[in-house]
Amino acid sequence: MMVSKGSHTGASLHSAEISDALSAWRVSERQWELTQPDDPGYRGAAIAVISAWLRYQELTDPEPGVFVLVADEDHSYVAVGGGVKAALDYDPADLLGRRVEDIAAPELGARVDGAWQRFLEDGRQDGEYRLMSRDGRSVELRFQARAHHPIPGFHTSRLWPADRDQLSATVESG
After folding, report:
1. Same domain for 131 and 170?
2. Residues 26, 98: one domain?
3. Residue 8 is part of which domain span?
4. Do 37 and 122 have their domain in common?
């Protein structure tokens, strides 16, 4: 059945999808809370929470050009938002298990450890960073990063192309 974007049925489907995503997030969070940190299933339970949280965020707060990366304490990506395809031409699954250093611009890779430590100490960072796209281009991005979010031991970055800010400033001043 084809549903038009503005139809009541389309809105109901979207509401149902949001409700399902919220439910999945809550269920996975309850399972994670029941799992002890020394349990072999703890990491998997944590990643299930993060993945469900990310899905809910993407449904309730979609913003063109913005994508989310969630990394663990070892700098490895455990969850990647769908918007990464438009920004860097990676499918989200392509980045799972890769490290921040793997896609950082080469001149930044060596400085990741020091910047990461400052980030964890401060609990947040905002600024600019360059990541490499699938075809090897260096892409200038703005970011907002939060340590231990959405759960302890995992760290979330919200990123968007830096030129989007320039475009917004041009539109606002014009």
Report:
1. yes
2. no
3. 1-61
4. no
Q: Are residues 136 and 105 in the same domain?
A: yes
DSSP letters, the chain, are ----TTSHHHHHHHHHHHHHHHHHHHHHHHHHHTS-TTSTTHHHHHHHHHHHHHHHHHHHS--TT-EEEEEETTSBEEEE-TTHHHHH---HHHHTT-BHHHHB-HHHHTTHHHHHHHHHHHSEEEEEEEEE-TTS-EEEEEEEEETT-SSTTEEEEEEEEHHHHHHHHHHHH-
Q: Considering only CA atoms, which of 171, 166, 146 is closest in space to residue 156? A: 146
Q: Mind listing the pLDDT tens digit of every residue in the chain (174 residues)? A: 333 344 444 555 588 999 999 999 999 999 999 999 999 999 999 999 999 999 999 999 888 889 999 999 999 999 999 999 999 999 999 999 999 999 999 988 778 888 899 999 999 999 999 999 999 999 999 999 999 999 999 999 999 999 865 434 433 444
Say which amino acid occupies 96: L
Q: What is the CATH number of the domain that holds 141?
A: 3.30.450.20
